[in-house]
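Exercise 7.
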Amino acid sequence: MLDTAHPITVTYGNGKPNSDGYFTAPTPGGGTSVIRNLIPAKDDAANNLKKIKTEANVVGDTGNTVDARKVVGTMLNQPVTITFNYIPNPNYFVNLKVKYEDEQGNNITQKVLDKLADAGTPVPDAPATEVTGTFYKESNGTDPVQFIYAKANNTGSAYSMTIEAPELTSYLTHPSIEVDDTSNWSTSYTTPISSLYSTWTSASPKYVVSTSGPSDSFVLTVKYTQDPNAFTELSAASDEGGDIYVTNGGSTVTYDNYITNGGTFPRLIRKNINPTNHKYDVDIKLSDLPTPMANAGYLFDKWVYNGQTVNFNSNGEATLTQITPGVVNTISLLAKFKKDPNAWYKFKLHEGDTHVHLLNGDEVEVPRMDSTGAVRVNVPWSEIQDYTEVAHNGISVDSGYAPKWFDASGNEIDTATVDISTLAGQDLYVYGQSTTPITPYRPDATGEAYILQQVHRQ
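Solution. The predicted structure, written as tokens, is:
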């Protein structure tokens, strides 16, 4: 900002004027004499002369702010240099933001803040008047907190800023630190980014940066690496009757698709580790798992680990105990689905005679609801063909016979057009009908009675 006390310095080609505003030259006798042909540097109302100076908000100047300045005065008949004097603006400041992440890029700032609070050195909320160099929680009310920040400005002297980086349970010691703009860092901070890492020690787990007044805002990222012996990764799979999904990049995709395309497994911190057999417990949250979605006719039932039901409490939390460490540092939960008893059309099949045999069982069911939950109609016979058709190995028929299906009332079923939803809950019967042509009996000339035998079912 412009120095309000001394906004400009005027340098004259003929040196400094005397106390009366006149310019002088040395005389042979050792004194000085006024140079009469030079316009003096003073206000002289009688001769309409004005000293060169600045004015704020000159009348008639539009668009000027309160701090605007305009040079006015009588231009002298000698070279004049006008220097504007700027000083650091004490009200101008930039920010130094700090966020904490693990090696997978997950934000763990809240975890660090909790550690500091437990140690009795909490990071405060921002007050109405922030103190330069003091770190505060972000002020937009985000929970969990995503970063901390400090106001940084020119105080007229050098000062240091301390960035806490405590040791965290289940993480390796000495986290790393990096800056978002390495090329401009040195113009604002006197601590080289290459030296910043070495300012942290186990005895004093913090980073220290020094500045005389930064000119730009920066973001520092403190990165922790999880101890591979202190965590277990959590994967998931789905059983028959549904699938599991995650939301990734605003889109809902299958869990398999997510993992195949670079998705990561949540990490669970091991606890209660047995020093002898190394068995351990882990806490699981439903939010750590993908979302189960049942197929038509099914309901999501439960999550299972090693054949045992995982019982989540009302807060969506569960604990798995006595887990045996494996070669692969991963445990997997299975999403189990069950049939919705009210969502199936069911049929009971019967062999009507000895010429036909059921090969895949005598009970069959097909979904009653579609994927939207609407009741299905016009359900074709083909949906039970794996139980009812020779071509699909559902039944076998003796040579010389063809299968015919009948409903519980003895009506033959037209399998090409029937809507099997109308047969739901019924007993269905299959008979073998002879494919041998019927030969009529003709009497001889002795006059025996003419008898026609017809065989409807053999």
